Amino acid sequence: MKGRSWLWACIMGVVLLFALSPPLRAIENSACLDCHGDPDMVKELPNGKAVSLYVNPDRFKASVHGRNGIGCTDCHSDIEKLNYEKEVPHPVPVAPVNCADCHDEESAAYEESVHAKAKAKGIKGAPTCATCHQYHYTPYLAAYTVKEKRDLFCSKCHDPMSHHKWLTQKETHFAHVDCSLCHAKTKGMTNLRLYNPLTMKFIPGGRIIKAFGGSYDSFLKSLDANKNHQLENEELKAVSDKLGKKGFRVALYGEMVAESTPEVHKITKNAIRKCDTCHSPKSPYLRSVSFVLTKPDGEISSYKVEKASLSSFTTSKFYLLSATKVKWVDIIGFILILAGLCFAGGHFFIRIVTIPIRRKRGDK
Ligand code: HEC
Ligand code: HEC
Ligand code: HEC
Ligand code: HEC
Ligand code: HEC
Ligand code: HEC
Ligand code: HEC
After folding, report:
1. Among 78, 79, 244, 265, which is disulfide-ready with 109 (CB 3.0 to 4.6 Å)?
2. What is the 3-state secondary structure (H, E, C) of the chain?
3. Which residue among 264, 285, 290 has the greatest number of ligand 3 atoms within 8 angstroms of its CB, and so is best to mutate?
4. What is the pLDDT of residues 161-186, one digit of tens each?
5. Which atom of ligand 3 is nearest the CA belonging to 103?
6. Greater confidence, 299 or 363?
């Protein structure tokens, strides 16, 4: 009996080994990079123009695909069928890459977007997966700011300032709200990032960790003085002192961002425009609030923030430099918002201003 269970253990071991080992890739990246890793590699088009066929090996390795073990022929999947071993260089043309092979949900959402519809109509310049995502060097997007995403994705083709006539403080909104949050009706959340109010630049998390030592998580935990797994107002204020001692000037910069899900691709023209979707304590985007440190690889490390600490968020950049300033910025901001509402609809403005009077009269 004993002998048999050994045999079974051996068989199971071998089976497990096969199940757990990554699928063998017939063609290694290095085989492709022997040719395509040469920066001078170009192909002449019939019209005389030259297209680069170079793929930077280091940048590819650092991309989200490189890091997740996706190789050249996982995307260029027909190359093996093209009898690569016998014919080098491989025959051309190579079939276009189909991102949907692995990203079917994103592709389904994209198909419902204004962009897929424009493409189907034959409108030139409608973006596809590869236009927006830098196919060989796809970065992790979590660490990108609202402004970076806007410049990387949407502003290449659209000038938001020439639309949105109804929106007050356009520049502020386009610097604090993801285009896709309004345009894709996705789930959203609020992130607070460290910002230098003098240079107007974001402070990379890596610099903070370098100054304080330890890991991202341990640094974040150290901010949570009462260890209740979230940061409250007092703790957030203490961040500026703690960082100030190491020479950092910080303010918190609030962003309303789309949750990174396939839904962000369902861009429609029929977007959110009601002010109180965001400017209200009941805003769905304030249900999840986080303090965020960005990492050099494009990912983030985050810590929950108590929503009530944000009572001033909707109206201020949430400067931590001085607590009293926040209040003043709030009041000014509030006046601005009321003024904004006035633009959006004088009727609404008057109703808000007259609430106390109407309350007194008993007509609620
Ligand atoms: C011996 C050199 C060599 C190797 C190895 C090689 N290629 Fe190429 N590749 C070429 C040349 C040359 C061209 C341009 C052919 C043409 O269109 O004239 C090319 C073109 C391409 C194109 C563009 C094809 C098109 O239709 O425009 C892709 C994609 C490509 N290679 C992918 C790969 C992948 C993936 C590998 C590894 C499996 C690989 N190549 C290995 C030489 C090579
Ligand atoms: C995430 C998928 C993906 C991976 C992984 C990938 N490619 Fe590509 N590659 C594309 C896409 C998309 C294009 C644009 C043409 C198309 O749509 O097929 C392209 C185009 C190319 C071209 C044509 C020139 C250019 O830059 O447009 C070459 C050459 C090429 N790839 C080589 C490689 C090599 C070598 C590797 C591995 C180091 C690799 N690719 C890995 C998606 C990928
Ligand atoms: C108009 C530009 C645009 C196009 C076209 C586009 N994307 Fe995206 N994609 C984005 C933006 C913006 C995000 C969200 C970034 C963020 O906020 O984190 C994103 C996020 C993603 C993510 C990460 C979120 C997730 O779903 O897990 C994947 C994967 C992705 N896109 C794949 C694709 C694929 C596949 C296609 C083609 C079907 C595509 N994208 C087309 C702009 C685009
Ligand atoms: C062979 C499978 C495969 C193909 C084909 C593929 N991807 Fe990916 N992609 C992955 C994997 C695996 C990940 C990492 C998943 C994760 O982190 O959750 C990923 C992640 C991504 C992300 C996420 C970045 C983020 O912030 O999380 C984007 C964007 C993306 N791919 C775009 C593309 C585009 C554009 C194409 C087509 C040019 C493509 N992918 C083709 C497997 C693939
Ligand atoms: C590569 C260029 C390109 C990029 C990048 C791009 N778009 Fe577009 N967009 C287009 C084109 C082309 C149309 C179709 C215009 C038409 O129908 O005349 C369009 C249509 C739209 C429309 C509908 C406008 C209308 O008049 O019907 C909206 C809204 C939109 N895009 C938002 C976005 C957002 C948000 C992003 C970033 C996530 C983005 N676009 C990225 C090219 C682009
Ligand atoms: C606060 C929500 C909101 C934000 C943020 C927002 N949009 Fe819009 N956008 C709308 C609404 C609502 C409309 C439709 C009404 C209109 O035309 O102004 C619209 C219209 C558009 C149109 C089509 C205009 C037309 O008349 O056809 C484009 C293109 C567009 N937005 C792109 C963008 C881009 C790019 C960004 C990011 C820089 C962005 N939007 C940010 C709400 C928003
Ligand atoms: C999608 C969410 C969203 C919508 C919709 C929205 N806002 Fe905003 N708004 C924000 C965010 C986020 C900020 C930036 C807050 C900050 O950090 O200063 C902002 C800032 C402002 C500011 C500037 C405050 C300051 O400190 O400079 C005003 C005024 C304002 N919004 C009014 C409006 C009005 C009026 C509407 C409706 C026409 C509206 N907003 C719609 C999210 C939104």
Report:
1. 265
2. CHHHHHHHHHHHHHHHHHHHCCCCCCCCHHHHHHHHCCCCCEEECCCCCEEECCCCHHHHHHCHHHHCCCCHHHHCCCCCCCCCCCCCCCCCCCCCCCHHHCCHHHHHHHHCCHHHHHHHCCCCCCCCHHHHHCHHHCCCCCCCCHHHHHHHHHCCCCCHHHCCCCCCCHHHHHHHECHHHHHCCCCEEEEEEEEECCCCEECCHHHHHHHHCCCHHHHHHHHCCCCCCCECHHHHHHHHHHHHCCCCCCEEEEEEEECCCHHHHCCCCCCCCCHHHCCCCCCHHHCCEEEEEECCCCCEEEEEECHHHHCCHHHCCCCCCCHHHHHHHHHHHHHHHHHHHHHHCHHHHHHHHCHHHHHHHCCC
3. 264
4. 999 999 988 998 999 999 999 999 89
5. 35
6. 299
